[in-house]
Design goal:
G_ENGA, GTPase Der, disordered C terminus, 456 residues, repeat, GTP binding, six-stranded mixed beta sheet, 21% strand, alpha/beta, Rossmann fold
Length: 456
């Protein structure tokens, strides 16, 4: 599905190109104090707090004969509005409303396209008069904004959201296809059996193995197909990595490079299997590796290898599980499986869980679903009022997946204590079945000086 389109409209030199550059994240449009720098329509892919759309920068709208250059530029602007899903009409709050602004507003009201009114250059008090004047244009309350400094971004996001948000089905069409190869990295301490595991999965001696620790030095990537329980062949890109020892024990330059290469493999992967040696149990280094994987935002699965020769299996499993829950407090319930790379036992279950974990890691939730849950969560457990100041959460939206990441908007939400943020994250996990994949929550407090809540 094509991205929704937003056209930036306004008279010359009100800051349209500056806003365009901010939305696309690059200095694509030329910006100068001289009016009329932009002549042709310029397009780019914008990302506003995770909201994705196509944005068009247009020439300054001028009242000239259609045969003149300014007249032809105006025709391009009118075409941009016809092609857009919503128009951003920008005025200069410091200069106030001009007759040309009023003419553009009359024209926009006559179109069948929704309009969001923006009062640019509104930083400080110099723009207050222009903001008040803009209310008379008949296009709703203006958004105080500074394209130069990025003030008012949250309010712009809220104004655009109803017009450009794609539903969950459309977003899924543009996300990575579910039949794309699973990027699966195998990590762990030296001699945990990583290469043996990869060879068993491939059913060939692809990797050199042996009792000596540290045989694998480079991260080796192998394309493979796993036959699932239904007989379907699922594409996998397997990545075998060098063993990760404690930093104090990494002495040789070559081994340091090998560990760095292993960490790059983690960055590349979607799901990371941390392989533990069941004959040695869980060590501090294992927890450090697991924490690093989660910090990088990757989905984690933990496998206890050499289970066929493990002693006191039940108590060992429960002990490792308890230590993981305590040592990885930020993510409870990371999948813990038992396998034998030597015999192949448990490997099909490992692959099945890896695919299921990627599904959760890639999951998107619509804003409507999120906010129905959010309203219930806030009603069940209202946010605190630190120092007597009321915190007013407005709503939450998912700005990206892989890993699932959410943005919470509202008044003073930046004052929410960590415990309440954890309450919301745990609620997201449970409600939308994210399991133990990393879930991130960003707080966006409104800095709009004209916010109705500012005196509450």
């Amino acid at each position: 599905m094509p991205l929704p389109t937003v056209a930036i409209i306004g008279r010359p030199n009100v800051g349209k190109s500056t806003l365009f550059n901010r939305l696309v994240g690059k200095r694509i449009a030329l910006v100068d104090d001289q009016p009329g720098v932009t002549r042709d329509r310029r397009e780019g892919e914008a990302n506003l707090l995770g909201l994705e759309f196509r944005v068009m920068d247009t020439a300054g709208y001028e009242d000239d004969d259609a045969a003149t250059l300014p007249g032809r530029m105006r025709a391009q602007t009118e075409a941009a509005v016809r092609e857009s899903d919503v128009s951003l009409f920008m005025i200069d709050a410091r200069a106030g409303i001009t007759p040309l602004d009023e003419e553009i507003a009359r024209w926009l009201r006559s179109t069948d396209r929704p309009v969001v009114l923006m009062a640019n250059k509104a930083e400080g008090k110099a723009g207050e008069t222009g903001i008040i004047e803009a209310m008379a244009l008949g296009l709703g309350d203006p958004i105080p904004f500074s394209a130069e400094h990025g003030e008012g971004v949250v309010d712009l996001f809220e104004a655009l959201l109803p017009h450009v948000e794609r539903d969950e089905e459309e977003a899924a069409e543009d996300s990575e296809a579910p039949d794309a190869p699973l990027k699966l990295a195998i990590v762990g301490r030296p001699n945990a059996g990583k290469s043996t595991l990869v060879n068993k999965l491939l059913r060939e001696d692809r990797m050199i193995t042996g009792p000596e620790a540290g045989i694998t030095r480079d991260s080796i990537s192998v394309d493979w197909q796993w036959p699932d329980a239904e007989g379907n062949l699922r594409a996998v890109r397997l990545i075998d990595t060098a063993g990760m020892r404690k930093r104090a024990k990494i002495e040789e330059k070559l081994e340091k490079l090998s560990v760095m290469d292993a960490m790059r493999a983690v960055d590349f992967a979607e799901v990371v299997v941390l392989l533990l040696d069941a004959t040695r149990g869980l060590e501090v280094q294992d927890l450090k590796i697991a924490d690093r994987v989660l910090q990088e935002g990757r989905a984690l699965v933990i496998a206890l290898n050499k289970w066929d020769v493990a002693e006191n299996a039940s108590s060992l499993f429960n002990g490792v599980k308890g230590a993981l829950d305590e040592g990885l407090a930020q993510v409870k319930g990371v999948p813990l499986l038992t396998v034998s790379a030597e015999t192949g036992k448990g490997l099909d279950m490992l692959m099945q869980v890896a695919f299921e974990t990627r599904d959760a890691w890639s999951r998107r939730v619509s804003t409507g679903q999120l906010n129905r849950w959010f309203e219930r969560a806030i009603e069940t457990n209202p946010p605190p009022a630190p120092g007597g100041k009321r915190i007013k959460p407005r709503y939450v939206t998912q700005n990206k997946s892989r890993p699932p990441s959410f943005v919470l908007f509202g008044t003073r939400v930046d004052l929410l204590p960590v415990s309440y943020q954890r309450y919301l994250i745990n609620g997201l996990r449970k409600e939308f079945d994210f399991g133990a994949v990393p879930v991130r929550l960003t707080l966006r407090a409104s800095k709009n000086p004209f916010d109705r809540d500012k005196h509450t």
